[in-house]
Amino acid sequence: MSDPTRTSQSTRHATDPAGAAARTPAAAVAPTSRHPLAAAFRLLITAAALTGVVLAALGTAAPAQLLTRFTVQANLAAAVIAACSAHRAWTGRRPVSPRITGALVPFLFLPALLHYVFPAADPIAFTLPAATPGAVRAVSDQLLYTVTPLAALADWLLLTAPRGFRPSCAWQWPAYPLLYLACTLAFPAATGAPSPTAATAATLAPALCALPLITIGIDQVRPAPRLHKNRISPTGISPLK
Fold this sequence. Notes:
Number of domains: 1
Largest sheet: none
Structural class: mainly alpha
Shape: globular
């Protein structure tokens, strides 16, 4: 039986263009698919998330304690993942796994929903601690609770292909928020937030599981973004079309 990985003698010594193309792996001649606009947009997400965190730190008396808040953790994760996605889009490398990028959507929208539904409350450290109203805090809240979540939503809906999430994400994504909820119940002093009531915890737990399910459901039915087709066949050896 012939070895499909070896090149035949006639192909190996061919000097015409067709023979040369046959001896060249398809991966070596495939054009790099770069997306500079997507890279620029994701850099803006990184800038918005980091700016919101820095402004929040400037507006509080204990900046280090903000690292225990879910809002800050989610926005820092969004900044890192968006920067990595921007680099890959700019260089044409494979995108970050949807299992990672998709988790940002429910992670960012959970504190945003709590902030707008319960603006006067401090729901067990999922949002920023209460502070004296001011311009710095107002800008920080807008960046952390509005700009970054909506930008992550737009990136997912407009710049990524649909049906990339797997059913296993439905239990993987809520794992950390549920663990965070359990830690705030067991060790409320560690986050600097008041101890949650049983009613609050019972309300948040289903929401932590519902947001990933909603995200996965939308991903299964949303249309694919309009992408330009490559006019060069990736496997053919004929001249360029």
